[in-house]
Amino acid sequence: MKNEGGRMKRTATRRHGDTETGREKLVEHRNRGTLLLILLLSFASGGCTLKASRGGIPTEVDSVIGTVGDDITEGRYEKIYKEAADEWRHDATLEQSNATFATLKNKLGKVQNRALHSATEENNSGGRLAGHSFVVSYKTKFERGEGMETFTLVERNGHWLLAGYFVNSTALN
Predict the structure, then answer these.
(1) Which of 2, 111, 130, 169 is such that its CA lies 20 to 30 A from the CA of 31?
(2) For the whole prediction, is pTM greater than 0.70?
(3) How many CB atoms neighbour CB 83 within 10 A?
């Protein structure tokens, strides 16, 4: 910058064959640095998340849902109860849990197919589902009706456990 008669005048600093001013180069350099920082932060944060399966659900969570689904189909209700999270056992006794599954099987029949509706990952510091959890909902076709199935899983000691299972269907009325 030069002062000519009380006014500031910008002069261009150019190199041979270069038409940008020094200021424009500084702005471009800062923009590149900011972009690089954003990219590095995105890659770093992505490295801390679970790997997702095709449906956007981590394979560990998807595996537990598959196992629970198989256990429901095969009538292994006691196994589900014993392997579930404390939250499940807090909400129902073994007898209540078994009766609920039996009612679902009698009214709806077996699952014919599931289509992912939504999957929500949460990290809560308190409340009923403190810690890391996934709530996964499916639009499900049963033998005798359709409905929405919702699986709630919590991570405890590095393992995903069933904390809740809910079916909403007009066929249950």
Answers:
(1) 2
(2) no
(3) 16
